[in-house]
Q: What sequence folds into this?
């Protein structure tokens, strides 16, 4: 029965992820505000991964 639960969790997780990727992006009303030159992490590369 444990295999069935993990398979169901994988299917539900995949469905949610697919829905998030295919959803229409939100659009804001025209406010005249322009955003430019956004800097994240002081311009350093962001590393995503796991550690031991």
A:
């Amino acid at each position: 029965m444990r295999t069935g639960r993990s398979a169901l969790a994988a299917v539900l997780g995949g469905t949610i992820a697919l829905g998030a990727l295919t959803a229409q992006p939100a659009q804001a009303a025209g406010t005249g505000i322009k955003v430019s030159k956004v800097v994240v992490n002081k311009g350093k590369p962001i590393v995503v991964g796991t550690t031991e």
